[in-house]
């Protein structure tokens, strides 16, 4: 299915009828001084049959003109993502299988006469100024550090940037595990390259790496390559099998109109800069070192079991390594299942991934576990798992399209009963990676 063609699915009841199945979902603003997140409900959720999201770009253009006194010269975009399977494998040189989703960060851009970047976001109160001819350092507001890092990376790569005004606007919920941070980085890169007349000057995988480095160095989050890679390289109707060791890719069809992917947001804020993620990374590296391997990609289940028995790996290292080895195998098996249209098998692999992330990798949380367990017995559900780094964020449910509404209702109702609040659920699909609008 090509990007932009209406999806054949009609998922009823968007919003005002009281349905929780609201593809329009919610959106967020960053609060002013402390940079904390505020969330607020849409007052008028989209009505009718629109099941997938198309961002309205008009407010972005209008606000750009109002703030900067002239219309934008370029409009660019970069999507958020959902990882179908292959979690915490990217920084272990393994395989991942993400899709770019129909949620994105867009930016309006116009060049300036001077050598300054002025960066503003419709989701943040404060704007930032970055002088291109001075060393670029982290600063306030914190959200702009992702952009500062990208500007610094492009300059380091020898790209001659020009001064520009940039305004961002997003419908990727922040901190929901859908990688708004990577979307912001990639969107920044697209904006700065467009302003400089250098669109396409940096090869896709190099661009992803540059954005990843920005997140490491300027945001203090030791993320893998997956989020940036899929935001750059996603394709409509395709999942991306990415070998994180060498950057090679294969596009896997993910466009069966009988199926739908539901995203359930726990609204538990994960923060991968907070230590749990970095600790997992360190444990994997120490496990690989003790096995005398370059990375856990080179390990197999037998090696891990032997090393556990002889005490070469401690308990946590064993658990982490077991997850990574199993998850890499599950990802490759999931690709075969998708290619064969075997959604039952694909679903089993999703459940297996979730159990391993919960028990061996210890990155799930009660809310994510609840969504998976609520979905599992429902008719029409093929599989479910947490997606993204964990410690909160979102879970995904692969379901038959015709049952998606009732599945969403049942999961949200069960979640509300258990946690006293609803979890927003929306349908998504594989969309194109970053580009011009
Ligand atoms: P995730 O990537 O899962 O959404 P992160 O914590 O990695 O969560 O990234 C969220 C951060 O990215 C926000 O706290 C903010 O600093 C930045 N960010 C994302 N989207 C925007 C936006 N539209 N405007 C400003 N900052 C944003
Ligand atoms: Mg992130």
Overview of the molecule:
With 437 residues, the chain is of the alpha+beta class. The chain contains eleven helices and 15 strands. The strands form four sheets. Strands 7-6-8-5-3-15 form a six-stranded mixed β-sheet, with helices on both faces. Strands 12-13-11-14 form a four-stranded antiparallel β-sheet. Helix 2 crosses helix 4, helix 3 packs across helix 5 and helix 10 packs across helix 11. The relative contact order is 0.17. The structure holds adenosine-5'-diphosphate (ADP) and magnesium ion (MG).
Task: Offer a few descriptive terms.
437 residues, alpha+beta, six-stranded mixed sheet, four-stranded antiparallel sheet, 15 strands, binds adenosine-5'-diphosphate, binds magnesium ion
| Overall SS class | alpha+beta
Topology as a string of helices (H) and strands (E): EEHEEEEEHEHHHEEEHHHHHEEHEE
State the strand order across the main sheet: 7-6-8-5-3-15
Q: First CA to last CA: what distance?
A: 19 Å
Estimated share of beta-strand residues: 15-25%
Shape, principal axes of CA atoms: globular
Please, what is the average pLDDT? 90
The largest sheet is: 6 strands, mixed
What ligand species are in this complex?
adenosine-5'-diphosphate, magnesium ion
The number of helices is 11
Provide the low-confidence segments as ranges. 1-50
Q: Helix share of residues? A: 25-40%
Q: How much is the radius of gyration in Å?
A: 21 Å
Count the strands? 15
Question: Can you lay out the helices and strands and say which pair or pack?
Answer:
Layout: E1 27-30, E2 37-40, H1 58-68, E3 74-83, E4 95-96, E5 98-111, E6 116-121, E7 128-131, H2 145-156, E8 164-170, H3 180-195, H4 204-219, H5 226-233, E9 238-243, E10 249-253, E11 259-265, H6 276-290, H7 301-309, H8 315-339, H9 343-359, H10 366-375, E12 381-387, E13 394-400, H11 404-419, E14 425-428, E15 435-436
Parallel strand pairs: 6-8
Antiparallel strand pairs: 1-2, 3-5, 3-15, 4-9, 5-8, 6-7, 9-10, 11-13, 11-14, 12-13
Adenosine-5'-diphosphate binds next to β8 and α3.
């Amino acid at each position: 299915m090509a990007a932009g063609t209406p999806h054949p699915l009609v998922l009823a009841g968007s919003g005002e009828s009281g349905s929780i199945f609201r593809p329009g979902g919610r959106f967020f603003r960053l609060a002013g001084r402390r940079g904390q997140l505020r969330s607020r409900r849409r007052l008028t959720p989209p009505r009718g049959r629109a099941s997938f999201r198309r961002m309205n770009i008009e407010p972005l253009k209008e606000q750009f003109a109002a703030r900067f006194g002239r219309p934008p010269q370029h409009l660019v975009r970069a999507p958020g993502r959902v990882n179908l399977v292959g979690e915490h494998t990217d920084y272990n040189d393994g395989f991942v299988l993400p899709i770019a989703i129909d949620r994105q960060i867009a930016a309006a851009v116009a060049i300036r006469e001077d050598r300054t970047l002025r960066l503003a976001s419709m989701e943040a109160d404060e704007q930032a100024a970055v002088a291109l001819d001075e060393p670029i350092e982290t600063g306030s507001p914190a959200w702009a550090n992702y952009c500062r890092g990208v500007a610094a990376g492009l300059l380091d790569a020898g790209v001659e940037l020009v001064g520009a005004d940039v305004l961002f606007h997003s419908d990727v919920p922040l901190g929901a595990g859908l990688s708004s941070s990577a979307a912001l980085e990639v969107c920044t890169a697209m904006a700065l390259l467009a302003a400089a007349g250098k669109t396409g000057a940096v090869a896709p995988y190099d661009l992803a790496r540059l954005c990843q480095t920005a997140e490491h160095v300027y945001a203090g989050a030791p993320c893998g390559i997956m989020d940036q890679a899929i935001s750059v390289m996603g394709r409509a109707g395709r999942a991306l099998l990415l070998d994180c060791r060498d950057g090679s890719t294969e596009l896997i069809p993910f466009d069966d109109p009988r199926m739908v992917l539901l995203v359930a947001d726990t609204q538990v804020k994960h923060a991968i800069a907070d230590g749990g993620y970095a600790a997992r990374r360190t444990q994997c590296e120490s496990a690989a070192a003790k096995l005398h391997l370059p990375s856990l990609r080179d390990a197999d289940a037998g090696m891990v079991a032997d090393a556990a028995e002889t005490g070469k790996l401690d308990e946590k290292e064993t658990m982490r390594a077991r997850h990574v080895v199993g998850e890499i195998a599950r990802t490759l098996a999931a690709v075969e299942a998708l290619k064969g249209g075997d959604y039952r098998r694909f679903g089993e692999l999703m459940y297996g991934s979730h159990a391993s992330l919960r028990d061996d990798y210890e990155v799930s949380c009660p809310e994510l576990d609840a969504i998976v367990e609520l979905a599992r017995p429902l008719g029409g559900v093929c599989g479910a798992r947490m997606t993204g780094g964990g410690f909160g964020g979102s879970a995904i449910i692969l379901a038959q399209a015709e049952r998606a509404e009732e599945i969403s209702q049942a999961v949200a109702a069960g979640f509300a009963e258990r946690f006293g609040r609803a979890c927003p659920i929306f349908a998504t699909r594989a969309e194109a990676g970053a580009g011009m609008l």
